[in-house]
Automatic annotation (TrEMBL):
Highest rank taxon of the organism: Bacteria
Span of domain Peptidase M14: 105-374
Pfam families in the record: Pepdidase_M14_N (PF18027), Peptidase_M14 (PF00246)
Organism: Kangiella sediminilitoris
GO molecular function: metallocarboxypeptidase activity; zinc ion binding
GO biological process, one term: proteolysis
Name this polypeptide is given: Peptidase M14 domain-containing protein
Family: Belongs to the peptidase M14 family.
Cofactor: Zn(2+)
Lineage: Bacteria, Pseudomonadati, Pseudomonadota, Gammaproteobacteria, Kangiellales
Amino acid sequence: MISIRGDFESGSVNVLSAKRAGDIRLEIPKDSKACTRQWFYFSVTTEKPETQKISLVNAGKTTYLMGWKGYRAFASYDLQNWFRVDTIFEQGELKIEHQATEQKVYYAYFVPYPLERKSNLIEKLKKSSYVEIEELCKTPLENSIELIKLRAKKKNNKKVWLIARQHPGESMSQWVIEGMLESILNEPKLEQILSEVNFYIVPNMNPDGSQIGNHRTNNAGINLNRVWHSADKIEAPEVFYVREALLKHGVDVFIDLHGDEAIPHNFMMVSGDMKSGNKIKEKLASVNPDFQLVYDYDNDGLDSSESCCQTSCCNSSCNISAKATDFVAENFDAVSLILETSFKELERNGTTVAWDHDGCKRLGKSLWDVITQE
Ligand SMILES: [Zn+2]
């Protein structure tokens, strides 16, 4: 008897058949009320530990086909330790093979970031006298959008904003934020830093999408990073209230944290103040080997003949220019950056190097070091 489950937080799977551990056939579901299809997260329980062969049979019909080339899935027995397992994309199917040493195994597109983990971190931050937590709104699924404020209340301070996980499947972005927040908790020079810089951090822009296992959209099927010019209070309260806070407090440096499915590199794209943005990029590359300057959206290094025309922006009213970084660059005299971290292991000098949630946290720490050394 084999049991496949996806009915837990961030779970995402449809079961076609699972009679034998060596022949498990599953589908990746669409986001709620949307057409994106990419995020998967499920558990497989067998009667005894054995080799599991899993086919995600509709991987060839997902939103980012280039995401599967060279990609390896994550697995865990205890939801604490996650590791990559053998994965291959062939004949339109993503095939995972794993010699399980326990009866129950979790599989995910990237290491999930639980809602409770954010709450626990916020409780820790609340104990710092430099931190103020503001609940900007409750979402339709009753989750909180929190704004973490670190400030010495000086009006002329430089204002640095970081937001993560507008796209809920891009859980790596929240691991980066965690690395940064832990750096803040351990920062001996925090008082000195805050005499010059105010920080505003939204650790999870899309908790509803995270909860229900969406890849790109919130519960209403809205791609949050396409509605920054006219966020609707009812359909996209997440963006509406963060926009209000941005307009209220102002911004000099804005960093929007995402994950990229296809490119096996971590990179930044700059808009607004290009000179300051490029300086941040160069410093980050000099302190962290997992971040680089060669590959990005202008030079993705991918074989374009294999690219596909599919897009997550399948809604006819979708406005590609209504991204958070565009909104900031157009409305403020600021540097506006998007940080993309990979779903895949990283390519470096022709070799493949590990990339997981621990790497994300190290990158978050480096980002803190770079911003505070400005
Ligand atoms: Zn994204």
